[in-house]
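WARN retry 2 of 3 for item q-0093 after timeout on previous attempt; input resubmitted unchanged.
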Amino acid sequence: MAGKPKLQPKYDATQLFESAVRTLSVRSCSVEQLRTKLRRKAQAAGDVESVILRLKDIGYLNDERFAESFAANRVENDGFGRMRVLNDLRAKRIAPKLAEKAVEQALDGKTESEMLDSFIERRMHSIWSAGPIEDQKVLARAYNRLRRAGFSSSGSLAALKRLAARPEELPDEFGEENEESGDLE
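OK item q-0093 returned
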């Protein structure tokens, strides 16, 4: 028999601040993400803003620093392209102009072609090492995966043409419906 869900105790300003510090010690987050978390825990709505201001004042909460770090990580470690990183920052509730600036900084000096080749080599090893690819379905799935990773349509297609056995037979654009069996490893 399912019981009633436990109600989370509401925190006063001191407890709310301590909870916020614990949250930030585990994982950095944007101001808006933290604000949303704290609103669920706060006894008084005004306490949330005072905690946010205090955290900003002492340097524990900074959207610009968070966005720059997050974007750099997504580009360097995950190998994602521009659009994916921008979308991920927006999902973290970073202001659009700040997200744009962070992505530009993270991509500084990198060409999409180099990033695509690196992504394919690191994250799609079976395609990279297979030699010229004959199967159009494999190319279509690879194209869709590159698009989900945030690379442009033209850049993704150009990268796959370099790997295709018959690049002249590739369409100018793959349809999204060609993705039927998921990601490649």
